[in-house]
Design brief:
This protein is mainly α. The chain folds into two domains: about 200 residues, MFS general substrate transporter like domains (Growth Hormone, Chain: A, Up-down Bundle); about 190 residues, Up-down Bundle (Growth Hormone, Chain: A). The chain contains 14 helices and no strands. Helix 2 crosses helix 8 and helix 6 packs antiparallel against helix 7. The longest helix is centred in the first third of the chain and has 43 residues. The radius of gyration is 21 Å and the shape is globular. The C terminus is likely disordered.
Length: about 425
């Protein structure tokens, strides 16, 4: 069926997409509550070291399995893959609940649940990343990404205090039940509402291994997509350490107190939600360039974190949040549009892998940098490097000539 012959309602009246976004937001709310409950329970059972072990347990298998999940997303029907992995997530939680009721809370139980959960998540996420291509037209990619950004922000706002309340009053049991119910909501949406409108060309590789090689080969021979992958990966690796480590030390060194730290974070979160709302209506002729230019502004705000006075840090955090909400939607839409559809799962998993595998090293390195040169110089160095990377990406994308969509056979190993 031709894409042009498919009738798609305007996004503001597209109940299929709205239901998908709402169900995903509810699922993310449950996840946020779950991780709060998991971290608190681990700290109660095994102290800081045990909590760190449990919270890191899911990251390792998720990083290892993300590439496999991306290959599966490009080989199999995405909706069925999402249904299967979502049912597996519910099963993991229910088995964990039964074990909790029968044996009680223990470090080994928490570690096992986190470990298995990481594997299942790695299968679900790349498949979900391919769905915008099958549901909406290209001109709505940015707006759909903005909707997901907004639902994610709301999930964090509600899920974090909800998780704290549940674990304080009902323990991990109540948190597990709420997370399982949230996955049940998205399971219903997947089964009844989420019906792809457009066919998607799948990989024709002979094996998972050949598809994995083919995904990296596609990046090697497609400089526009490779540039976007580098920019998206560099975004989180530069900004997250400044916010997670640099802001803490800046607040501590200035003796502003923990309350101010919370207010700074809240300012960024609210501004990011506002940015996502603005992105719903923004129609850029070149969303990749617009998003990257916004990130140059964000990089300068990262520099300001290390040197600005109290009011200036609020302004910097508002700038970081606003540009994050706008740029994330623009770049996500540009990414979905740029990647050949049979490689979308693998390319999405590569971006996710950079976050999972490199983020611990980025956090540690930034902490060491602060120890060596101070928070002001560290923020200035990382912010400047971030701006330079985004400017390089803009120049690089402008110099690349568009490539024909069918330049090589689908699934051909690189």
């Amino acid at each position: 069926m031709s894409v042009d012959t498919v009738e798609v309602p305007p996004l503001r009246r597209d109940t299929r997409v709205h239901a998908w976004v709402a169900a995903t937001g509810i699922s993310q709310l449950g996840d946020v509550a779950w991780y709060i409950g998991l971290a608190w329970s681990a700290a109660q059972v095994a102290g800081p070291a045990g909590a760190g072990l449990v919270m890191g347990a899911g990251a390792i298998p998720r990083a290892v399995m993300l590439l496999v999940g991306g290959a599966l997303a490009d080989r199999l029907d995405a909706r069925r893959t999402m249904i299967g992995s979502n049912l597996a997530r519910i099963a993991v939680l229910l088995v964990g609940l039964v074990a909790l009721e029968s044996t009680g809370l223990s470090l080994s139980l928490l570690f096992t649940i986190a470990l298995v959960f990481g594997v299942v998540d790695a299968i679900y996420l790349p498949a979900a990343a391919t769905m915008p291509r099958q549901l909406v037209r290209e001109e709505d990619f940015t707006s759909v990404s903005a909707l997901f950004q907004l639902s994610n922000r709301l999930a964090i706002f509600v899920g974090a205090p909800l998780g704290g309340f549940l674990v304080a009053h009902g323990g991990l049991r109540d948190v597990i039940i709420v997370d399982a119910v949230s996955f049940g909501v998205i399971a219903v949406a997947l089964a009844t509402v989420l019906r792809p409108r457009f066919p998607r060309q799948l990989s024709e590789g002979h094996s998972i291994w050949s598809d994995l090689r083919g995904g990296f080969g596609y990046l090697r021979r497609t400089p526009s997509v490779r540039t976007l992958v580098i920019a998206l990966s560099g975004l989180n690796l530069c900004v997250s350490p400044v916010l997670a480590v640099g802001l803490v030390f800046r607040t501590r060194d200035a003796d502003w107190g923990a309350t101010s730290l919370g207010l700074f974070e809240a300012t960024s979160g609210v501004a990011a939600a506002i940015g996502a709302v603005i992105a719903l209506r923004w129609r850029s002729s070149d969303p990749a360039r617009a998003g990257l230019l916004l990130l140059v502004v964000q990089a300068m705000a990262c520099v300001a974190i290390g040197i600005a006075p109290y009011a200036g840090v609020f302004l910097a955090m508002a700038t970081i949040g606003l540009t994050a909400g706008l740029a994330s939607a623009l770049l996500a839409g540009a990414f979905v549009a740029a990647v050949r559809e049979s490689y979308l799962g693998r390319c999405s998993s590569i971006v996710g892998l950079a976050d999972q595998a490199l983020m611990p090293a980025a956090m540690t390195s930034f902490g060491l940098l602060i120890s060596g040169v101070g928070v002001d110089v560290a923020c200035a160095l990382v912010g400047t490097a971030f701006a330079a990377m985004m400017l390089w990406s803009i120049v690089r994308l402008a110099a690349i000539q568009p490539e024909p969509e069918a330049a090589e056979p689908v699934g051909r190993p690189g």
